[in-house]
Amino acid sequence: MLSLCAIVWAVSVNAEAQLASKIPKIGVLSSNLPAGRSEAFLQGLRELGYLEGKSITIEWRNVQGRADLLPAAAVELVGLNVDLIVASDARAAVAAKQAAGTTPIVVAAAGDLVGTGLVSSLARPGGNVTGLTLVSPELLRKGLELLRELNPKLSRVVVLGDSQSQSYAAQLREMEVAALALGLQLQLVELRGLNDFENSALAIAKGRGGAVTTLRSPFINSQNQRVVDLAMKSRLPAIYSDSQFVDAGGLMSYGPNYDHLFRRAATYVDKILRGAKPADLPVEQPTRFELVINLKTAKTLGLTIPQSLLLRADEVIQ
Length: 318
Prior knowledge:
Elements: H1 2-21, E1 25-30, H2 35-47, E2 57-62, H3 70-79, E3 84-87, H4 90-100, E4 105-110, E5 129-133, H5 139-150, E6 156-161, H6 168-182, E7 185-190, H7 196-207, E8 211-214, H8 218-222, H9 224-233, E9 238-240, H10 243-247, E10 252-256, H11 258-273, E11 289-294, H12 295-301, H13 307-312, E12 315-317
Parallel strand pairs: 1-2, 1-3, 3-4, 4-5, 6-7, 6-8, 8-9, 9-10, 11-12
Antiparallel strand pairs: 10-11
């Protein structure tokens, strides 16, 4: 009887171990991941039947803007034998690609995936990377158009950019084409590290620009409060491509709905866990955009937001 009980117990333990081993494990690698976007990703997983800690295990690695820590964090995730890695941005995707070998990688929101060599094309990624890109025709032009609508006499715009960003060159080309079409002059100001903020303030003051905008980069996004403070110190209206800048006190943002992108990333995770190959999953471009306006900031700057802009805004912060 005892031996039979022992056998039954051993079989039971073995079955439980096998069941536990079937629970997928994914890694999330991020340069800087706001809590709202991680929650959007989890919501997307829940809608597909995955519950963190029960039907899926998630290893979170957020380097809080320290891009130099990404390679080590990526290697650590690979060492944990994750089934796939979700990279929140381009820098995280590059670090994951260098460390992952053939481990599938899903990018939640990155710039030029083709230009950085992460995928062969949007329609046919061709390797172990797929996901969602922020690249969308006319996106940066739309930001300049909104600034011109705010100030019809606008002629010169300060552009804050990080030349170390993976998508810097592509964004800059798009911005220059848009500025030429609108008859605007651009003043490029570098933001590559914390020491650049003081010099940037001086450059903006000397440049006599009429407004401020930014190019997307993991570093600039991670320093959203400092970037907003820089623009506010210049007393110039500014538009950003990410609503987190408006939450930090910025005037306006126009860009993809990032929560939607992170929820969509969960569908890629589900498909890959069910056997799909990243090479066969086309990269998606954003389909939902949002205009967010901060009226409190407008009042601080002494600006009156045209009614035409307010009526089109998806969110107005009072």
